[in-house]
Amino acid sequence: MRKAALLLAGILSLGLAVVPPAAAQEGAREPEKCPRLIAGPPIPYLQTASMRVAQAEDMVDITFLGHASFWIESPAGVSIVTDYSDWQRPPRTPRIATMNIAHSSHHTTNPDPAIEFLLPGWGDGAEPAHYDLTVDDVWLRNVTTNIRGWNTTEYDRNSMFVFEVARLCIAHLGHLHHVPTKEHLDALGRIDIVLAPVDGSYTLDQEGMFETLALINAPVVIPMHFFGPSTLQRFVSRAREEGYEVDMRSSASIEVSFGTLPRSRTLIVLPGS
């Protein structure tokens, strides 16, 4: 008994904690899947692509369908449509469809029954939506934010969906109405490509959106939700003033990999609405 007491005293004098195995397992954290990068190698420019199954092992296809909807396709052929609605139906059925509730142009009550994973960005009652889902080579999660209601705030009714595909971390901000807090940013983690609403009125105003983009600090921003060329041009002009490289595309699709991310902040403008 005395020997056991002396042994325990010796362990404590060395500053070691005696932790039961069960407690150690409970305290363990799963490795972060989208950690923030500190530095990266020189990388070339993005390449265009049509909407199709990505052929290269590490390439991801992103196609702007219009408004707030994108078709994202992984190297393994997993298809995702963001802010799926009756306004912007994709040409074929995706495996995953995300939705947001702010307006009918961001969700539907009549989805294609063949969609395997239909993910509303709002929860039931007071419970916020929560997703942590792996589908083949896609890892998906969401971070909820608030939206403006009639003279009130509706809590956790919008989701910023994050897709990790082929080492790329892609965030769709949904119908974002406020600058994300530190807690939101910590939950987002490192983001490589932001799909950002830039209308400047129905979602965040222009000041708020550029503050948000500076906080997220992704190398690529793709604008959406811009209601015509004049609103888009206003955002593009401000982006140039903020130091963004501006890459105007004639195709609604790009093919991108982790290795082809630009070194400087780049706004990639895809045709759409």
UniProtKB/TrEMBL annotation:
InterPro entries: RibonucZ/Hydroxyglut_hydro (IPR036866). Keywords: Signal. It comes from the Bacteria. Pfam families: Lactamase_B_3. Residues 1-24 form the signal peptide. Transmembrane segments: none annotated. This is Metal-dependent hydrolase. It comes from Lutibaculum baratangense AMV1.
